[in-house]
């Protein structure tokens, strides 16, 4: 195995795995996504100019692979009459609850909006860089980011109101 590739994965792998978790909304799917992309990256590693940010290359692979998986899953998705039960929130600190609320709201967004928000705010990329990764215009990134933030605000506010109502009904303050 190429030691430079192993060093890259060791030093930057966790960061990209967190990005994959935010893109997929699921830890196990993120690990699968990351594994698939690392396999693809390894196959081209010797042709890649590792001095010029292999992070950007892997990030684009994560987005494109996730997009293709999402499209494949969407095509074979089967509607169900009843939704599965949602687990009750556990006792966590306010910071943990807030992070969980954000992850939950992100998972409910359309893929393009979620991708734009993750790349823009978690990866801290400029709008132009996000446009390059997503393969769209800067204006499209701005639209997805704006709509995604609006939806996140609504989702988090409604989830908070629902949780507050459950707490008040149970008598816990």
Q: What this model shows, in words?
A:
The protein has 173 residues and is mostly helical. It has two domains: 1-83, Rna Polymerase Sigma Factor, Chain: A; 92-173, Arc Repressor Mutant, subunit A (Orthogonal Bundle). It is 76% helix and 0% strand. The chain has seven helices and no strands. It has helices at residues 3-24, 27-44, 54-76, 94-108, 111-122, 127-134, 138-170. α2 crosses α3 (54-76) and α5 (111-122) crosses α6. The longest helix has 33 residues, at 138-170. The radius of gyration is 18 Å and the shape is globular. The protein starts with a helix and ends with a helix. The model is unreliable at 87-96 (pLDDT under 50).
**Which radius of gyration do the C-alpha atoms yield?**
18 Å
pLDDT < 50 stretches: 87-96
Number of strands: 0
The description of the largest β-sheet is:
none
Q: What's the CATH first level of the largest domain?
A: Mainly Alpha
What is the mean predicted local confidence, pLDDT? 80
Named at the architecture level, the CATH assignment of the largest domain is Orthogonal Bundle
Helix content: over 70%
Kindly estimate the percentage of residues that lie in beta strands according to DSSP.
under 5%
Give the CA-based shape. Answer: globular
Order of helices and strands: HHHHHHH
Distance between the termini: 56 Å
Indicate the CATH topology of the largest domain: Rna Polymerase Sigma Factor, Chain: A
Tell me the structural class: mainly alpha
How many separate helices?
Answer: 7
User: How many domains would you count in the coordinates?
Assistant: 2
Organism: Dactylosporangium vinaceum
Protein name: SigE family RNA polymerase sigma factor
Keywords: DNA-binding, Sigma factor, Transcription, Transcription regulation
Family: Belongs to the sigma-70 factor family. ECF subfamily.
């Amino acid at each position: 195995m190429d030691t430079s590739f192993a060093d890259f994965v060791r030093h930057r792998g966790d960061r990209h795995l967190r990005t994959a978790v935010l893109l997929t909304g699921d830890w196990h799917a993120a690990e699968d996504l990351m594994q698939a992309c690392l396999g693809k990256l390894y196959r081209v590693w010797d042709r890649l100019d590792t001095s010029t940010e292999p992070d950007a290359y892997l990030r684009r692979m994560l987005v494109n692979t996730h997009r293709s998986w999402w499209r494949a899953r969407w095509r074979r998705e089967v509607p169900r009459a009843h939704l599965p039960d949602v687990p009750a929130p556990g006792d966590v600190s306010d910071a943990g609850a807030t992070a969980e609320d954000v992850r939950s709201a992100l998972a409910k967004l359309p893929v393009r909006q979620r991708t734009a928000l993750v790349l823009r705010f978690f990866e801290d990329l400029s709008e132009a860089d996000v446009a390059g990764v997503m393969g769209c215009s800067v204006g499209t990134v701005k639209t997805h980011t704006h709509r995604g933030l609006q939806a996140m605000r609504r989702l988090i506010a409604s989830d908070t109101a629902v949780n507050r109502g459950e707490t008040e009904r149970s008598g816990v303050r």
